[in-house]
Amino acid sequence: MTTDTYPIGTPGVPWGVEERVQWRDGQMRKRSYAEEVVAAVDRLRVRYDVQQYGQLDYGDDRYPLLAIRSRDWDDALPVLLVTGGVHGYETSGVHGALRFIQRHGGDYAGRANLLVAPCVSPWGYERIHRWNPDALDPNRSFHADSPARESAGLLRLVAPLRGRVLMHIDLHETTDSDESEFRPALAARDGKPFEPGEIPDGFYLVDDTRNPQPAFQQAIIDAVAEVTHIAPADGNGEIIGSPVVAPGVIRYALEELGLCAGITGARFTTTTEVYPDSPRATPEQCNAAQVAAVRAGIDFALAQVPARTP
């Protein structure tokens, strides 16, 4: 697909209000945030505190924004942040975050404070889409005065914790639909030509250009390699157009680009990317890979902090 054939807009002309409304009207609900996410969070209330940090009102749709917190929160302990579903269509990011807290959150009791926001973009989750209803990408919108309400809500949640977060891992997927739909839509929206790219086959990580942590990234890659395969570099030595700095690792300027993993100033940050469309991966492997990444990241980060004496 090219911008010349994308069904919305005029090639070379950025979308206006009419085109954005036309795009939004074409997005149909395909699954239920209430049944698949809110219900799962509610089942965790017996063990964790659940904080509603906002609500998104889009037409007749109401979406509570929920975060799961350690019940015995201790300000003397490091904070570990896990986010998923910043792009609502990236399913294992949501369910990987939920599976981690369900199965392994208790492992860190008394050692750290956990904060998990499993589905940052519920409208996108229901419609299996990258954008919010205003045709905005939440993962390019984490900055002051953000026009994306999903991003602004999460920024408000973590603002009191800036400078106290030890690790933040943001769970994502790279899918075939990035090339077939989302990047062509982005080009059409912005009135630019669409230049086809290559989808990496496997798991990879996005480190921070300003604060690279190669040993942290390697610990996660090693753990995930036991669950699913790691994406190789393409013929140019790149993954999604960025140089590969270590097997399965590239770097972005997280904060400058308005990416979720840059919102806390944490010492250890990364964005995971699994490939659910690979013939070598299953949805179960994708969820398990996200959990393995979270656990490895946390274990590495906590190992760098002196244990608290009783």
From TrEMBL:
InterPro entries from the xrefs? Peptidase_M14
What PROSITE patterns does the entry give?
A: PEPTIDASE_M14 (PS52035)
Q: Which residues form a coiled coil?
A: none
Domain Peptidase M14 positions: 29-305
Per the record, the domain of life is Bacteria
Q: Which residues form the active site?
A: 273 (proton donor/acceptor)
Q: Which CDD domains match?
A: M14_REP34-like
The entry sums up its family as follows: Belongs to the peptidase M14 family.
For this entry, the protein name equals: M14 family metallocarboxypeptidase
What is the source species?
Cognatiluteimonas sedimenti
